[in-house]
Description:
By secondary structure, this protein is an alpha/beta fold. The protein is 33% helix and 19% strand. The strands form four sheets. It has a five-stranded mixed beta sheet with strand order 3-4-2-1-13, covered by helices on one side. Strands 5-10-12-11 form a four-stranded antiparallel beta sheet. Strands 6-7 form a two-stranded parallel ribbon.
Amino acid sequence: MMDDSRVTELVREATAAPSMHNAQPWRFRYARGRRAFRLYADFDRKMAHTDPEARALHMGCGAALFNLRVALAHAGAHAEVTLLPEADEPALLATVRATGAGVEDAGLAALHPAIARRHTSRYPFAETEIPEPVRVALIDAAFREGAVLSFPDPWHLDWVRELSEEAENRNLTDSGSAADLARWTRRGPTGARTAAGGVPGYAVDGVPEYAFGPRKDGGRAPLRDFSGGKPTAGLPTTSFEDDPHLALLATEGDRAPYWIRAGQAMERVLLLATSKGLSASFATQALEWPDLRWPLRDPGSGAGEVQMILRLGYGPECPATPRRPVRDVLEFES
């Protein structure tokens, strides 16, 4: 049996995962006797307007699930995962039982150092090509989790950028989007950098002001203005990439099981990208509008449901966003 301190550390690593607006919409329960984790969705942390179906929420939880698998592999255990094990309990997204190490776990364990290093970067990236072997490796990483990662050809890429820009313009004048952003952004003293686990009076979730990144003044990289277009003292402006590297992550279907798999695939791609020296951010704006999300699909095949747009590149190190104390998201049972 794993002791409580080890379980706490495993969940701490799981919750280093990204989530929309850093809402951290997960809860864990650990059954000591069965050496089993239960991962729950915290629907109170859903974006009411921008994620009404909780698609992004499920993806964030899927990313946390993947981190838990990696952490267990690093600890010499195999994660035996069952998705959505109880039909009458939709908040229970997965059960994870720790067993003996499996054949596939060496590849997962190799990603473990990237958990602590992976941070969303809202800064400009260099105008540097991503080597083809790295792209192939990222595509394979998504495939291993049941998803498809693609780098759009130039015509499709222009279309994705146009849709993202249209969505960002809509968000800046949409009251529902503004309400979601206001709930999950932290300005002023509450947005100050915190120690691990948080400090009383300081934010432990959401996007703090120091992590907004600079405002875009030129370039074609799709970015979210976390200030909501409002004046923010000390927020610089700068140029971003003219030719950003965007990748689309898609799944065959568009229901909860696919969203959880997409979250795992996304995190596997992000951890591998981090280990290869790449930075990443998310361009989710067009995914938040049904009429814009549909045209993101591959114009040739029209196949797949786009779940995430990743912006990848070589960029500077950036500060980590805060995380909720593990005691707030983990319960133990016998």
